[in-house]
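Workshop exercise sheet. Pairs work together: one partner reads the sequence aloud, the other fills in the structure field after running the prediction. Swap roles for the next sheet.
Pair: D.N. / O.F.
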Amino acid sequence: MDTQVLWQLFDTSAKVGIGALISALFMMVILSRRHSASKITQHPDQRRLMILEGISTDVGNLSHVFAKYSALVIESIHHGTHWPDARKKELEMVNHELVREFKKLSDAESKLLMLGEKALEKTLRLYAAKIANFRRQVYVGRTDIKDETIIAMKKDINLLREQFYEFLSKKYDRLLTGTASAR
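Structure field:
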């Protein structure tokens, strides 16, 4: 082989090798910066705030779905056998959505226990139990339940929700002001 061809081959190989080396170095620098940025841990109170915000969102979603569910069930009781099939299907979909939200609520209760927030968890558990009791007592086809009973049950549920948010708000405020150690 000609020396000029060998020299061109060596030159091209060296350039490709140097390019690969430079690319690898830049990749290592980028990855190490990304890794070190993710290693910077948040202040524990900030993490608690984020968890409490997520729990608040989950409870809010459950409240919304429950409101849809209860409105449809009450409507079905009032209409009796003349309730449209489309509304029955809508109730079925909302019922499935409510079950999914209960799963999220169970996760929220676990997070509260993990954070040592027993009072918040207990209030949330009572709130969920009241909703479950409502579902057992107020259902499609039930004709012997009075509006006053339904209203009283919904009032109890709303009181527990308000109580939960009151406790959550106080805890959240303490974390924001930096007095979280006073549990």
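Discussion prompt: The mean pLDDT is 88. What would you look at next?
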